Amino acid sequence: MKLIECPRDAMQGLPDFIPTATKIAYLNALLKVGFDTLDFGSFVSPKAIPQLRDTTEVLAGLDLTDSPTKLLAIVANVRGAETAIQYPEISYLGFPLSVSATFQRRNTNQTTAEALADVATMHELCERTGKTLVAYLSMGFGNPYGDAWSPEIVTDFTQHLAQLGVRVVALSDTIGASTAATIAPLFSALIPAFPAIEFGAHLHTTPATWREKVSAAYEAGCRRFDGAIGGIGGCPMAADQLTGNMATENLLAFLAERGQEPGLDLEAFSRARSAATEVFALH
């Protein structure tokens, strides 16, 4: 079971800038917990995501000593990827490849064809520098724009990624549109069809629907889950009203119910949760 903590997603839509030192202290607390991966920042236009304009400074302040956690940075284009690969501390580059053409344009200012071309280039960059590209299939469970969506379309995108050699694909809810009825069939079909790909679930949810969503993905074979302490965050490019991330606390509760050991330092998690309360209470 892999748990990916996503403070980047929790922070990016907040209107008030979180001081760099505050970000660093919070991320360093998270690095002590033992998450598989920390989605810590992004190399994107500061005009698009002003909250994360200090990612380079934040990275310089992180204490990776004795932490098993790997770092993931989101990039929106090849230029961002070229910047991210310069940092040996970063293991993963994440790119939001949208199943919705409208959202691809809103999110990265690209057509689908341009985004797919960038994925190919970024994957090659990662292979050459010892990093791994994570392709997030955003709007993976539907979209609010009226763009075509079906399991077959998601499968076609995945097939393209598989042909490129992409090894990690996260189906991303983005706006909280998913239900157990859409989550379970997708993972049940994709996981056996593409055995070379590690599939993840990046689910946005309301407090009332988290359990059914996690359960559907888990029972269908998914073992890689993104979460954010407190369920904070959402994509500012997707909608005016943000739907929160999957709360990490809920993921841990779900695993405990099934007798699964997450391998985390729960005391460190408690301290990080307290730090999150202080960080996000400022906003």
From TrEMBL:
Which GO biological process categories is it annotated with?
Answer: ketone body biosynthetic process; L-leucine catabolic process
> What Gene3D superfamilies does the annotation carry?
Aldolase class I (3.20.20.70)
**Keywords, ordered alphabetically:** Lyase, Metal-binding
User: Domain Pyruvate carboxyltransferase, which positions?
Assistant: 1-270
In terms of domain of life, where is this protein from? Bacteria
> Which residue windows are transmembrane per the record?
none
One GO molecular function term of this record is:
metal ion binding
The UniProt entry, under PANTHER family, shows:
HYDROXYMETHYLGLUTARYL-COA LYASE
- Provide the family line: Belongs to the HMG-CoA lyase family.
Task: Output this protein's name.
Answer: Hydroxymethylglutaryl-CoA lyase
Q: Which organism is it from?
A: Hymenobacter montanus
